Amino acid sequence: MSSVNQLIHCINCHEIYLRTPFDQTPEYEWEPLNSLRESQGIEKDDFQDFLRNHRGHQLENLKIIEDSFVSEKPYSEPVKVSYFKATNGRENFVVKRFREKIDQPIKYQLIRGDYSLKCIDLQIQSETIRKQLEREMKPFLTKTQIDTFLQFYHHVGQKLDVNSLERVPEESPTPLEIYYKMDDFSLMYLLRNCRNFFKGKAYAEIEGFIHRHKDDGVLLLKATYRIEILERRVPKRTEVAAVSLMKKASEKV
Ligand SMILES: [Zn+2]
Questions:
Q1: Ligand 1 mean position to 16 CA, how many Å?
Q2: Fewest CB within 10 angstroms: 121, 171, 175, 247, which?
């Protein structure tokens, strides 16, 4: 989301309008260029409609916060909910961007508040590791030994705190799955566990495997995140009035 986009907020109605470069609506971004050209005239009318509907209202520009775009589904998925942050300099907002069906226009909803990403799961890639071990280690390790290594690795992985791990810019199809490297201290702990179980040649092979793959995709840990919207509650005038009435009632007693 580029800063040339203009996000206009009607303070009275709590509605927003997103103007994009070349006066085209983002709803056409998945479609071929020729249909996009036809849409330009329509979008200009939309913006004029917005201005007409909010004539005399208090309008302000919101600044879109760069790199704040997150989504629950892969980037290429057209029907999905995504969010980005915006601010008027005093208050922060989250803009929810969504559409209900592929042939419907994208809608934007303004939420007062913020969002954060919460890690809900951190896992080793058991299947990937198993396949790689079988490919490289078939002659040296038995199935039981491979299972045991996976148990050890899983055990060490469960003790880790995602905040202390180094993030790896690994390609991920979904924006809420992030890959991390196991730290050296935990790898040493893992090797110590292995040394007690694997002997001689088997241990040497396991040690070599860890060194070969600790930085590539195989031994990376996969963290899954969830978007948590933190909505700021705006006290309504009626609630304030009700509280002061209650106070008065209790003062009398
Ligand atoms: Zn308005």
A1: 9
A2: 171
